[in-house]
Amino acid sequence: MARPLWFVKLLKKTFPNIKIIAKLTNFPILGKIFDYLLFRGDDIIYLPQDKVIDINIPLGEYNEYVLPSQVLEYFINKAKNHWIMDFCICRSSMNCQDYPVDLGCLFLGDAIGIYSDSVENLIHPYVRPQENGNRTDVRWVTMTNKEGNGLLISDVGGTNLNVSAWPYSMEDLESAKHNHQLPRREFITFNIDYKQRGVGSFWLHRKYILEGNKKYSYTFLLRGYTNDMGDINLV
Questions:
Q1: How crowded is residue 189: how many other Cβ atoms within 10 Å of its Cβ?
Q2: 155 burial level (CB within 10 Å; 0-12, 13-18, 19+)
Q3: pTM > 0.70
Q4: Is the Cβ–Cβ distance between 195 and 210 less than 8 Å?
Q5: How many CB atoms are located within 10 Å of the residue 173 CB?
Q6: Which of 123, 131, 127 minimizes the C-alpha distance to 179?
């Protein structure tokens, strides 16, 4: 059964003296008290020292279960303690924080859809300026002005694209030491890539490395776009 939080904290503090406490349980009265405090409501199986228990349980076929939201809400409300996490436990435990989103992360990856935003909101202000804002698994993208006129880029090779846009140049990124040193140019640097390596520990995993001794190719289409052409999804 679940124990109150204060009891869990008490166990943590007394755990270094576990051997002394274990000896105290040899006294019948103290043994019953510890038994009640520690194991009340639990199903306990005592394993004999002179016997062997053979465990061979067929698991059978795996069944999928869908829990309605009301069931999840019930258990959340029933819980005595709620833990609020400000990190992704899956990506932290698997050390894949620096992997591309297109690996299929259910927690951080966005669903396939049509998104729009300004170039300023697409960049990421790293402490030390560097390449940033890469979007993966892109089928098509447009760069348009306030009037809706601009350039349409679409993947036609079936590989999908990696794209990013900056209000400054690559030279600006390489020369700047701090974010405030990055200017805002009168042009947009638009990067159209096949793939990109990650950062951090990414290089440790060979299957995600873009090796220099291999040939890569990708094909995309460039086309001018104006509002007069109608719905961009039909162009």
A1: 16
A2: buried
A3: no
A4: yes
A5: 18
A6: 127
Helix, strand, or coil here: 74? helix
What 8-state DSSP symbol labels residue 104?
Answer: T
Cα 156 to Cα 167: distance, rounded to the nearest angstrom: 27
Q: Is 225 exposed, middle or buried (0-12, 13-18, 19+ CB in 10 A)?
A: middle
Distance of CA 179 to the CA centre of its chain: 26
Rounded distance, CA 211 to CA 100, Å?
16
Pairing relationship of beta strands 150-155 and 161-166 according to DSSP bridges: unpaired
Model pLDDT for residues 11-56, shown as the tens digit of each residue? 777 777 778 877 888 888 888 887 777 777 666 666 665 666 555 6
Choose among 134, 130, 122: nearest CA to 175: 130
The structural domains of the chain, ordered by start, are 5-78 (no CATH), 112-234 (2.70.98.10)
d(CA 24, CA 158): 70
The token pair at 71 is 């069931």
